Amino acid sequence: MYGIDRGYIIAALPRTGSFLLCEMLATLGSVGYPQEYGLLDDGATWSGHHGHASHIAYFYDFFRFCSTRNGVFGCKLMWPQFAGLRRDIRRYTRIGGGGLEPIEAMTGPLKLIFLDRRDIVMQAISLVRAMETNIWSSYRTLPPPRLTYSRTAIAGALSVIEENRQLWETFFVRHAIDPLRLFYEDVARGEIAALLPFLGVETQQRPAHITQLKQQADDQSRAWRDRFVAESAA
Asked: What is the pLDDT of residue 136?
């Protein structure tokens, strides 16, 4: 489809630097243009951002604009988007199957990159802040949001992240998938040397670690982490 013969999925957890990794890969111009998939109820993505009049039109176009001319497709999906994409493939094309089969019918063989984060407390705090402010990424430095520390909210975010982690891990085991495992902390430093060999890319070029994205963690985040850890230890 659209000349696609292979690809990859960045299987992401919330607040793991997935936008940054997508930007880095897009700089190569030969390993797809990985973007997230907009579900039917995510009109801000498929209509507002991409300008499609209907979700089905966006669905078919998604595979085209995530691909480079050499036939490589790339996208980044949180678990709900991954499950939703498989459902939409069945809905719009009648293509079924288990595991990666529905998506691979559209893209060819897929490899998976699992994007996680070592500091799970900071990950949860980042998720709480993003949900409270509805700011998920920014290209400018923003003033610290006026938020109140909530141990309950952080603990809830930890549970959400762990639930999604287990959904991915269960899927990998069930379908005998061995993903390349990357961590936010390494991506933020540009340390992704294993990525291109895993994707089978033969190029002297390396993903450019040039971005206007601003890191959203700040002194407030670190203070919340210290307080949460201290309270947990007590």
From this structure: 56
